[in-house]
Amino acid sequence: MSDAMKAKMHELAARFAAQVGNYRAVLEQAMNANDLGEVQALAHKLAGIAPMFGYENVGNAALDLEDAVSAGENHSAAAQQLDFLLASIEA
Predict the structure, then answer these.
(1) What is the pLDDT of residue 26?
(2) What pLDDT, on a 0 to 100 scale, did the predictor assign at position 90?
(3) What is the pTM of this model?
(4) In the prediction, which pLDDT does 33 show?
(5) 8 Å CB contact between 40 and 84
(6) Are 43 and 71 in contact (CB under 8 A)?
(7) Whole-angstrom Cα distance, residue 24 to residue 86?
(8) What burial letters (b/e) apply to 45-70, b meaning 16+ CB within 10 Å?
(9) Cβ contacts of 90 within 8 Å, gap of 6 or more
């Protein structure tokens, strides 16, 4: 990977980390409103982008949440785990 590409990826990773608070707020609001479509959409988004920036654990937790919502299963624990991992980035 070129130095320019590494710099761009670093910049994008920093942008992702800066957005974590917003992702947490959207997740909390969607969970409180029982808006499963929004929960699933956010989980899908995070499952795709988080691993690109080195947050594989966040991607896996988001995928678990997306799968739980899709299957109609209890998804509270998966949402809490995702929020916990996002909070660790925010810290």
Answers:
(1) 97
(2) 84
(3) 0.91
(4) 98
(5) no
(6) no
(7) 7
(8) ebbebbbebebebbbbbbbbbbebbe
(9) 17, 20, 21, 24
Structure tokens at 22: 């917003």
CA atoms of 47 and 34, how far apart (whole Å):
20
Cα(82)–Cα(58) distance, integer angstroms: 6
Query: What pLDDT score was predicted for residue 83?
Result: 97
Mean per-residue pLDDT pooled into runs of 10, the chain (91 residues): 87 94 97 97 97 95 98 97 95 68
What are the CA-CA distances from residue 79 to residues 2, 5, 7, 30, 41 (Å)?
37, 33, 32, 10, 13
For residue 25, the tally of other CB atoms under 10 A from its CB is: 10
The label of the residue with tokens 């929020």 reads 83
In angstroms, the CA 68 to CA 90 distance is 25
